[in-house]
Design a protein that fits this description.
Blueprint (H helix, E strand, L loop, with lengths): L1 H22 L4 E7 L5 H14 L5 E7 L4 H13 L4 E4 L4 H13 L4 E4 L10 E5 L1 H15 L4 E6 L6 H14 L5 E5 L7 H14 L5 E4 L2 H13 L7 E6 L7 H6 L5 E4 L4 H12 L7 E4 L3 E2 L2
Parallel strand pairs: 1-2, 1-3, 3-4, 4-5, 5-11, 6-7, 6-8, 8-9, 9-10
Antiparallel strand pairs: 10-12
Helix pairs in contact: 2-10, 3-4, 5-6, 7-8
Bound molecules: beta-D-fructofuranose.
Beta-D-fructofuranose binds next to α2 and β9.
Amino acid sequence: MRWPTSVAALAILALIAGSCGRERRAAHLIGFSQANLGEPWRVAMNAEIAARAKDHPDMDVIYADAQQDNAKQVADVENFLRQKIDLLIISPNEAKPLTPIVRRAFEQKIPVIVLDREIEGDSYTTFIGANNREIGAEAGKLAAKLLAGTGDVVEIKGLPGSTPARDRSEGFREAIAAFPGIRIIHDPVANWLREEAMSQMESALAAHPRIDLVYAHNDPMAVGAYLAAKAKGRDGEMKFIGIDGLPGLDGGEQSVKDGKLAATFVYPTGGSEAIDMAVRILAGEAVPHRITLPTRIITK
Ligand code: FRU
């Protein structure tokens, strides 16, 4: 008769342990849908989110990587909705294709934080990101200064459907419009990617015997352009400006230190701010509809 008793005791113990395990499931489930994890800046954003979320044991963050694919990102968010997330954080690959699913989540009363790249319309709780038009304008003013008001510029653009590419271009063009001696002679799209920027820059170099400055919408593309120019022995003839200013060995900060880039502008990932906002939203606080993060120029 002793055996069954201990078996029962064990079963009870197992039950207790099991329910304790279940109780450890966090009070709030957050889904973070990332546009891609192929770029160092996005890896930094995920790391920032994970580090800040650690301070909140009542919060579980689940991650999805859309791999630059709009359809995958829509599916990722649908999957989050099936898992009954309490809040969505999304950095959308492109604005238009991601707008309907974000709206759907928002209309289901799930708070939505949009990070860095925007969607269309207003169906989200809060947007967090730096002002890309202003960063573009700052880059334009710097270009005008470096060129002393005259010169031929190559602009290398990010993914056209992503709002920072639009805003960084418009801000830059507005700023240089005040300088009739500055011309944009070539403006290829390289989709934010270093390798694509390298091959686009090869075409620019072949087409133009003189290039005075390259403005790329992010640092990986600026470095790609620099490498292409260097391979042709022409890097000394022009200046390079990028955006992101990531710290660390492979970041834009180092590229400025190494003299590859004349300057870059810090584009904060907003990862910690997103978690801070999530905490406030889930506590029932009203938060601003737009949170603009600061930028800063990095030169030698
Ligand atoms: C990474 C990235 C950054 C850029 C940002 C714009 O995917 O291309 O380099 O600053 O996206 O959304």
